[in-house]
Amino acid sequence: MYLQASTDTDELLMWDVSSKQRIVDISLLRDVEWVSFTCHVGWPVLGVHPPDNGKVAAVDRAKQANILAVATGRGHVMLYQYPCDSDEVLLFISVKSETILE
């Protein structure tokens, strides 16, 4: 079993849970089928590019594993096909907000 996390500096980190060791060569896990996916960086989300150079605030893959929801700190929500290897957005919603999160 493996664990992955993405940092606010867009770094993808992975660990082998059973050995409690960090995996340095993350390309070894490129084709792993993850139970859930909430990282904003990684191979399955290469096509995610928020508008206006906004920063990704949240990512979540649907349980059916074919839709990816992405939210930005500027109030945008986008739906992509999962895995997302192109920047084609299936649905775009812009929510007006007084606060911009970066």
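the 2nd protein, sequnce then structure:
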Amino acid sequence: MLSCASKPPVKPLSAEDQIRQDAVVGSQVAENFESKLKLKRDPELSVYLRNLGQKLADQVPELKAAPLGVLILRGVTLMVLEMGDQ
């Protein structure tokens, strides 16, 4: 006997929950990158880019409290939002 069952409706995520979920994925991607690629260590540039990125994120209320991480790879810079202890 066959039956049709509809899936329960998916509740859309709030902006805050979506940011948290994206941050978890971003952290996982960053860990993957860090384990596979050689990173350039430039503390001054990292601080500058992190501060710049945080100033930009501060313009969006949902991102204001989200910590920001910066990875510098062979001339390419990635900014990753990371949710963690604040």
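The radius of gyration is 18 Å. Residues 15-36 form the longest helix (22 residues).
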